[in-house]
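Q: I have 324 residues here and want to know how they pack in 3D. Can you give me a structure?
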Amino acid sequence: MSETVSSSAHGYQPERIDLPPLFAWPPRPLAAFKWLTMGLLFPWGMLWIAMAIVAWYFLTPDLSRMQSLELDWIMLIWCRNAALLTLVAGGLHWWYYIRKGQKLDTKFNNRWPATDDDKFLWKDQVKDNMFWSIVSGVSFWTAYESMTYWWYANGHVVWPTISDSPVYFIAMLWAVFFWNTFHFYLNHRVLHWKPLYNFAHELHHRNANTGPWTGISMHPVEHLIYFSVFLLWWIVPVHPIIIVLTGLFQGISPAVSHSGFDYLKLGRSIRITTGDNFHNLHHRFFHINYGNSITPLDWVFDSWHDGSEKGKAILKRRLRGRTA
């Protein structure tokens, strides 16, 4: 059962983070089913799936054009990805940070983004984050996605149609969320290797106080590793909608999880979960919560910080003798 962590000077403190019911022992099949169908997908997962369907059928060039790597169709995909990222990250930023639609209510950190800090380009955190997200992030995302289409268009993998394999297609929709979060844990642990952290990952960690544009604000080397998530589909055949969904989840969902606010509050009654406190704790403390709660590898490897006093004890234990 969740417990509320008391507030502190650092900012709003949400509830303790529990393991998803899917991984409970003894098994809780009804709770696991409810989590798989609602907890995992509602509302953001359903939005990414809907966006993937629309993007594939209406915003992506025909696969027949992709047999050769031509700049024209690749740039169309780049523009599509940049526009969708701007729609989500820009929309959340407008509500939370420009309009300040709910002020500091449910904000993890009481500070606003930095506007005079030398560690950011132009001394401005938001402009810095937008630059790295769009110029580098969208470019690597688009490159991997385009190469995957090219791989399929040239017959190296034959994609299964929805009509021939409807159950497989639906299963792979869920698989995207588990594969992406599993991949994120692995690449994130690599990025915390001290030489690679100092060279690349430190750029992302300058954002201890995150915002929507922080999500994929990374060094190009980190983008190269981070978006390699597409490579699984070079071996495992999937419908192109799954490929689009992989990019959307990897490229846009971090804008939500890094939003800096636990909930999006609209009016008096609408409250939608946004910021991921599990990852927010990683930005605060570095040596815990390398992955996501969806795929709880941190729990397996004893780096799970649930936001409680028990989590603090785990952090202290991990910090003993560490320098990076």
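Q: Anything worth noting?
A: The first strand starts at residue 263 and ends at 266. The two ends are 34 Å apart (CA to CA).
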